[in-house]
Amino acid sequence: MERAIGMLSRITEHAERNDRPVHWCAQLFMLLAASPFFIGAGLSISSGLGRLADVTLLVSLIWVGCRFGGWLIAGLLSLLPVRLPFRLIGSGIALHVAVTVILQQTEVSAAGAATLAGTSLLAGYLAGSGCWLLIHGRGFRPAIIGYAGTGAASFLLFFAWMFGDAAYAVISADGPETAKAGAPAANEADPSAFGPWRVQTFTYGSGVDPYRSEYAEEAAVRTGTVDGSALIDDWGWSRSWLWDADPTALPLNGRVWMPYGGPDEGPYPLVLIMHGNHQMADYSDEGYAYLGELLASRGYLAVSVDANFLNHSTWEGNLGDNGQNIAVRAWLLLQHLREIDSLSQTSGNPFSGKADMERIALIGHSRGGQAAVLAAGFDDFFAGERHADIRIGYDFGIDAVIALAPTDFPVDDRSVPAANVHYLLLQGSNDADVTNYSGDRQFGRVSYDSGLDRFFVKASLYIGGANHGQFNDDWERRDVAYPTAWLLNGNQLLSGEEQRQIAKVYVSAFLDTALRGSDRYLPMFRDYRHALDWLPDTLFISRYADSRFVPLADFEDAFHLLSGRNPVTVDVLGSGRWQELELSNRYGDSRHNHVAQLEWTGDEATVAIGVPQGVLPGDIREAEALGIALADLSAEEGELEVVIELETRDGEVFRTDLDDLAPVPGPVETCFLKPFPGDLLEETVKGGELETSRETVLQSYYLSFDGDGPAEEEPADGPAGHPDASWRSDEGGPAPEWDAPVDIGEIRITVEKEGGGTVLIDDIGLYLAE
Length: 770
Description:
By secondary structure, the protein is α/β, with parallel strands linked by helices. 29% of the residues lie in helices and 23% in strands. It has a ten-stranded mixed sheet with strand order 2-1-5-7-6-8-9-11-13-14, with helices on both faces. Strands 15, 16, 17, 18, 19, 20, 23, 24, 25 and 26 form a ten-stranded antiparallel sheet that branches. Helix 3 crosses helix 4 (86-105). The radius of gyration is 30 Å and the shape is globular.
């Protein structure tokens, strides 16, 4: 033992012999350069011990590991017959390996991680050695000053690049102000303004949570547990340790915002909110208080469901595969509905008589958004005999689903459908988590049966500058884990307050439409410009359809260009070339939606759709609007003009143009990552998934047959007025009210742009009158 210790001492002495004080200073700055990556690694985990403990313990372990590794490498290198600063080299290698491994664990490839680690450590070395030479060098010689200045500048520039946009470059500095609960709103039509009810906040829980007293001894209502073992097969030790629960006894925990002291005392429409996947010990259910408080003030009973025990574990990863995880979340939502239903029918608790189980909406974020869709048709989806043990056995009649940046994973090897339900989708252009706009596929799968005696709406809003995390007040910009999150381009992002303002406006307005049957906000879903007074200044693209829409040309299933779907026919006039194609996302993968692409080389082209008699159901005689969706793919600059003509069987022609409506959108370009030489980040972060890319998004147009030009005064009980479609006859006068859609013989769509262009066309059809 003594001989071994003596040998190690001699190796250490030899390793240090060639290191000068300048090298010690350089080592210090290299450690400072690596420290943010160590701290980021601590922020990216959630062990259950608390954020401070996570960061402190992990940084300490990494630092000790680097010191020991540096010492060991230096000792081995000292055996070489050369004179080198072995301790400096050993320390640099150990730090480089540590930073590289940390970046690789947060979705940066080996090449990118090694380059970033080397860049930061080189900046640290230059700054440290330059600082020492400047202080201890003999005189302020130009060479020393230049070297020290270069080192300091490289160090500062690297970290300015890393953290320079941490506070965001907000698109609009001041968001709309809202009144507080119980106070009169400045604009009563503003759906994000607090309503007349006061808000009571409390929690309910199963009492088994060992770390959160609000779900244990402080819970206002004690709930039971539920057996989810039929859906969960890989519950690990870390979940049992952190939650004191297992699949046979999952807790039912929720945060409640309940109205009181307003125009009525209930029962209130019930709204459940399901969060998405995140670190399970970094609790996610608290992040929707901004919605809960607003909705309760406007007369909704809002609940944020705790599903943190289904989230990602630092120790064991995700629970189940993606589809199974979605199914468990959907099942849990229904268990909460069943529990609230029981409590509402029982006296002696805060829920007693307060929940209107005939008016239910589910809001979900990320995986929670997909789970909400599945929950709306859970038993129908799992109707097969092999799923008998997971079905709920009760139809809650869920009226509406609101999905915030949802996923769209296969569940049970199938896509999740949705029928006869109100559906709202919000998606950000800068979502660095769900980057492929998967909610658009779900939007296309929402369908309505013919002959319904109820009115249903589906709508979507694509939001420029919105990311994934800021729909949750606690997730903020963490679309990827730290330290990689610091590589994201924050200059394109909305602030968190602005993004949540958009969510408040659209969620509140949509619930009034879906659960209260109000039509005051329908204009803003048909045309987002009606809501601009309440929204930050950014890009919006919206889609709309409702249960009264009859498609004439949607280019799906058996639709064939030039022959259409019997009996509708399609023809192209002018210099246009017409082809059907499958709409793809920014990576070229299918969005499960077929569209028509029209290219033309002259100044204009026309698509003519023949509508033979008898296309519409025989008992339907009136229509209220024409619908169409468009996107402009023209590479050339210039203004696109769109003119639509309707010709009756009697030869009368009526036309409108889109000049006064929302502009036809071009592809939306998103730069997810900060610039780095050689596009290194774009090629290496998340396997290239975050490279600068363009997303094609269709804009819907609702061309009302009752429209007669710009709106008059702003309506007192609805959103601000904007110009609508203005139909004109051949003689130039306004078109009469359309009372016989079966008289329409042909629909012509003319696109005009000097020198030609390319547009996508989809969902041409009629909205039938009630």
